[in-house]
Amino acid sequence: MPRLLIALALFWAVGASAAPADDFRALLDHHWAWWLAQNPVAATRLGERAHDDRLSDLSVAARDRAARDAAGFRAELARIPRAELSPEDQVSAAILDQLLGRQVEAARYPLLLFTNREGFHTAFASLPETVPLFTAADYHSYVARLEAFPAQVDQAIETSRAAVKAGYALPCVVLDGFEAGIRRVAEPWPQSRFAAPFRNRPVGVPEAEWPALEARARAAVEGGVNPGYQRFADYIARDYRPACTRAVGASARPMGRDYYRFRARQETTTDLTPDQIHAIGLKEVARIRAEMAAVATRAGFPSREAYVEHLRTDPQYYAKTPGELMREVAYVTRLVDAWMPRLFGKLPRLPYTIQEIPAEIAPFTTTAYYRPGSLEAGAAGVYFVNTSKLNERPLFEVPALSIHEAVPGHHHQIALAQELDLPPFRRHAAFFTGFVEGWGLYSERLGIEMGMYDTPAKDMGRLSYEMWRATRLVVDTGLHWKGWSRDRAVQYMLENTALSRANIEAEVNRYIAWPGQALAYKIGELKIRELRAEAEAALGARFDIRAFHDRLLESGALPLDLLEAKMRAWIAAERAKG
User: Fold this and answer.
1) Which residues pair with 114 in a beta bridge?
2) Which helix (H) or strand (E) is 162 found in, with range?
């Protein structure tokens, strides 16, 4: 085990010393102030109001300055003797070093501001729901950002032109309907999502100020925001789409194979090569296929394929209205909520809610996703559900889907991390996909212990979701490393999962547009399952599932090597108690 991991293991086993590290704390303060300035909307959500009238700078020059700053922070961090830091600060230093290194390395490649499903434009569209809107100052900040949006659109177009020139346009196959979705955000003022904050005056805004604020907001939306969305859509239709690439894999881009290796390391927080990840995926697919065949037999079908066809085509498994689907989601989430105190000793204060995915992106995006909330901003976490194409959204998938996106998956882990007694960069800026998505997939398996998969259809839904993440390892590396076509990727997932064709096609488009991100889920989940198996074997009857989960989540998101060191130290300490 590397020397740093040994030191971290000792920390997690025996606890931290109280010795101060003034230089390191000063660096953390300096870095956090810098991060807040780079992310002004996030700063507002976290209660830091110094940047309230700003949006992020999306220019290439700003990205390059930020990378130089990150390199400077990293050099400053390297000058601080790690051995003289407390063990707790050594953990934070290791995490900060990884984050800064990742930012520096990313600057080698063109700046990409959107995929086929999300980007700066979708983030801005959620502004009314994600910033505090309680006082007159809040509303002045909100309106100032509406007024700043046209300039951000211009930056985004120029940055995208630079990426296209460098050979980094999205593949043509994922762009169907993209600009139409952008245009749908530009609604007339009375129906506009940006008008929603003005439908009711908060008590914190004086009545005398309200008409002028509303008039200013309306002018900003009609004169700047809506034309900005139209201008961005026009750019996509007239300039970007004609430059889109025919090849679907990242390897076809300039520096493409280096880029994909970087993306694999970045998302999994491991040094696994694309070939190793592909092999892990093939092994997992074979294992899960055997489990699916056993469920099909239990359901009375002659084969896995026959049962999957039945599940895909029988109307009994599908909601007839969006409301029916959302009621099923609400029912399932309430059932899961009752299990939370049995699985965790510590629960977050922040609640979550469920909402339909906005209509302008629903036909082109995934089945569901989660948006973190903020106590400071007065915003709950949101589990978004796709209610388009209902004949492709089977109800038997709802338990696994809801467990992953809400609790004990993303909402529980992310909301809990926001409340931890850790440096703020670790609570709010250290997002390691291998940990976060690995936890979400591991959580789906906890549904077995909850009894949530109480029919063969629901159990097949769970296995199909696990297979979905296993096939991602094969498909993502196939597309971006081994030269697979889109059709081959779709066919592979049709043959191995119970997902509908529409879901599979949307997912494959996502992998094409967002290389490497989909690798994180299964790699992270396998590591967490490995650590739980080690704990159960070492502790036997003394294994406490609540203690295991609380310990795993108490440090926020971690790179997988640090998570492994932490949990093995805990296992050793628990075993030593006798």
Assistant:
1) 119
2) helix 136-165
The single-letter DSSP state of residue 272 is -
Peptide bond into 408 cis (omega under 30): yes
The token pair that represents 301 in the structure block: 């079908």
Rounded to whole angstroms, how far apart are CA atoms 89 and 104?
22
- For 279, how many CA atoms within 13 A lie in the half-sphere containing its CB? 5
Q: Where are the domains of the chain?
A: 259-525
Q: What CA–CA distance (Å, rounded) separates 562 from 433?
A: 14
In sequence order, which residues have a C-beta less than 8 Å from that of residue 68 and are 6 or more positions away?
Answer: none
**Torsion angle, alpha carbons of 421, 424, 427, 430, to 10:** -140
Q: How many of the other CB atoms lie within 10 Å of CB of 117?
A: 19
pLDDT band for position 15 (50/70/90)?
very low
Decide if 33 contacts 127 (C-beta within 8 A).
no
With b for 16 or more beta-carbon neighbours within 10 A and e for fewer, the 211-246 pattern comes to: eebbebbbebbeebbbbbbbbbbbbbbeebbeebbe
Q: 502-553, pLDDT tens digit by residue?
A: 889 989 999 999 999 999 999 999 999 999 999 999 999 999 999 999 999 9
Q: Per-residue DSSP letters for 164-193?
A: HHTT-PPBGGG-TTHHHHHHTT---GGG-G
Is the model's pLDDT at 20 over the cut of 70?
no
pTM over 0.90: yes
Q: What's the residue count for the chain?
A: 578
- For 50, phi then psi, to 5°, come to -70, -15
pLDDT of residue 87: 87
Beta bridge partners of 284: none
Cα separation, 264 vs 270, whole angstroms? 8
The predicted-structure confidence for 255-292, as pLDDT tens digits, reads as follows 999 999 999 999 999 999 999 999 999 999 999 999 99
